[in-house]
Specification:
This protein is α/β, with parallel strands linked by helices. Helices cover 25% and strands 20% of the residues. The protein contains 10 helices and 21 strands.
């Protein structure tokens, strides 16, 4: 990695805020076009993968989808799922190959537009200016924890999913996991496999099969073109950005996550967590609906694969349909923490974006940037690495390169051809 001490300039044609896979992907294409730039990273490059993943974490998408620019997966298990340490090694290889012009340990406190054009960035190491700014800090900034969590007994250990490491790091006793998206479902499984008594408050997260008709479901969906579907062609349009990810796992070679099987094995399931009264939590009676809806999505995805197989005349294993292995005969609507022996709560209910440091009028009422494929209405300001920025893979190893190349090609043509206000005019790079 290039040493930050060699950087003395305060103005750059392009500054990238964020040194994760999206910011580094943009750096790759800027280097290819010999465009001077600087990456500013608050922590260290790819920090989230190093510090915000639990010990048993593995990818939920197969390794072949790891396709960072100039650095595709080259291991001997393309249909496997890299574990946490393997992911970090893959990222380290990408960084070593890229040698990005990055300054780590630098916080960007404020980005404001300049009257003369371009932007000013106030940081913890001084002020910079840039003609173009790519915000690549992701969309998962502020952990969501309900207000009433502050009223829980002080004897209860509370952590967010980003702080969870392993079952041994928790105190003895039962654990309540709140949220059944990808992180919640996988953390609940991790604790369950370790012999912990787990209570799980479910949400409306969907699920999907790991393998179906002889192949990984991801392989089928890739062949069907789902991962190339742009957001404007998705049935939900931009609304898909608010969807919770399907829960499934790559652990131990990959398998389904079936909350009903967990329940058969002793995990206690609830509907949506609603409120706290003393040391008793109450839940909405939504468990059956949550499980049924997750299974309906599971079967619907499989049916779409069935239709594709039939249409293409593909020889494959026989079709099947998931049937529930357990039903909640009587939903539990309350939980006394003391009586249940719960000593830990893990909040797995997501994050809120925080772009308050970007003082440019490009955000909607929810604080999310208005953009088209990462290009905002303020010339020279771009966003990269957000979920469904353009396709399903925009925030993942599989699709971020395409988005980064698009934005960098646009920057290059604006610089070379002198386009001004490109985003207002709907201009897109002629090379893509």
């Amino acid at each position: 990695m290039i040493q930050p001490s060699i950087y003395h300039a305060s103005h750059y044609p392009v500054i990238i805020v964020g040194g994760g896979q999206s910011g580094l992907s943009a750096s790759h294409y800027l280097q290819q076009l010999d465009i001077e730039h600087l990456v500013l990273e608050k922590h260290e490059a790819t920090h989230a993968w190093r510090e915000k993943r639990w010990d048993a974490f593995s990818l939920v998408t197969p390794n072949w989808q790891c396709n960072l620019p100039g650095y595709p997966y080259a291991g001997n298990d393309p249909h496997g799922f890299m574990k946490r340490d393997e992911i970090i090694a893959y990222l380290d290889g990408f960084i070593d190959t890229l040698q990005p012009p990055i300054r780590e340990g630098v916080t960007v406190n404020l980005v404001t537009p300049l009257e003369s054009g371009g932007y000013e960035l106030q940081t913890t190491v001084g002020t910079f200016t840039a003609d173009h700014v790519i915000v690549a800090s992701g969309g998962y900034h502020t952990p969501i924890i309900p207000d009433f969590a502050a009223k829980l007994p002080a004897t209860i250990t509370q952590i967010h999913s980003e702080q969870y490491r392993n079952p041994e790091s928790l105190p003895e006793g039962a654990v309540l996991v709140v949220g059944s998206g990808q992180s919640g479902a996988q953390i609940a499984e991790d604790l369950h496999l370790a012999g912990k008594q787990v209570y799980l408050a479910t949400g409306d997260a969907p699920r999907c099969a790991r393998f179906y008709r002889g192949r990984d479901v991801v392989d089928w969906l890739a062949d069907m073109g789902y991962y190339d579907l742009p957001v404007e062609e998705h049935p939900l349009r931009e609304g898909v950005r608010d969807n919770t990810n399907h829960y499934v796992t790559g652990r131990d070679g990959g398998r389904d996550i079936d909350l009903r099987r967990f329940a058969k094995d002793g995990m206690v399931l609830f509907g949506r967590l609603e409120q706290l009264d003393g040391d008793t939590l109450s839940f909405a009676p939504t468990l059956k609906a949550n499980l049924d809806n997750a299974d309906a999505v599971y079967n619907r995805i499989n049916r779409s694969i069935d239709q594709y197989i039939e249409k293409q005349g593909i020889t494959a294993e026989s079709a099947s349909r998931y049937e529930p292995v357990w039903e909640p005969m009587n939903e539990h609507n309350t939980l006394n923490l003391n009586e249940a022996g719960i000593t830990s709560i893990i909040w797995c209910i997501g994050f809120r974006p925080d772009f308050s440091w970007v003082d440019v009028p490009v955000f909607n009422a929810q604080g999310y940037p208005n953009h088209q494929r990462g290009v905002t209405t303020h010339a020279g300001l771009y966003f990269l690495g957000l979920p469904w920025l353009y396709t399903w893979g925009s925030g993942r190893f599989s699709g971020v390169a395409r988005d980064a190349e698009f934005i960098v090609r646009l920057i290059d043509e604006i610089r070379v051809k002198g386009y001004v206000g490109a985003s207002e005019s709907g201009y897109v790079p002629s090379t893509l």
